[in-house]
Amino acid sequence: MMNAVLVGMLIFSVVSAAFGGNMEALSAAALSGCGEAVTLVISLTGMLCLWCGLMKIAQQCRLTEAVARLFRPLTRLLFPELPAGSPALQAICMNLSANLLGLGNAATPLGLAAMQELQKLNRQKDTASNAMVTFVVLNTASLQLIPTTCAVLRQQAGSAAPMEILPAVWLSSVASAAAALTLARLLRGGRH
Questions:
Q1: Distance of alpha carbon 153 from alpha carbon 40, whole angstroms
Q2: Is the pTM of this model over 0.85?
Q3: How far is CA 97 from CA 83, 143, 146, in A?
Q4: Dihedral angle at the C-alpha atoms of 145, 146, 148, 153, nearest 10 degrees?
Q5: Which ranges of 103-187 does DSSP label H, i.e. alpha helix?
Q6: Cβ contact 162:147 at 8 Å
Q7: Please, what's the largest Cα pairwise distance for the chain?
């Protein structure tokens, strides 16, 4: 679906530029946008590598187990069907930690690892379990304490105070997570 939307936007842009006599402006915007995209990707890649490396070190130092114990009251409430000490719970906790730090890109590989572990525990392999649904909802809501990626983007765009968005981020994060988890709980099926 998203591919169709993007192709539609591209076609609309080209047709509009052609009829408006702005093909040169469209070409210039496309070239400058490509350069800016590459610069952005390179800057975010550095941050992603740093945090993924730190998360890997945390796993090898068994810090992930300590974080899992710290989050245990929350994970017990959200994922009551998962056994204590499960690798899935550790991966979920590390994903939550990355999201709390606003590292959505670094949270992605941790989220994929959590889903793989949750699939191992899933009895119906062709249907998402309640734990999987809850995790996806929680991960998508992206509860954040420190919006690191957003702050980096704001700083690169020239913001004098890139962290001034904290109250809005906290409010929207809590509201989206609460709404998402409430709906996930209300719409739970007979899955295990």
A1: 8
A2: no
A3: 20, 9, 11
A4: 100
A5: 104-121, 130-141, 148-156, 166-186
A6: no
A7: 65
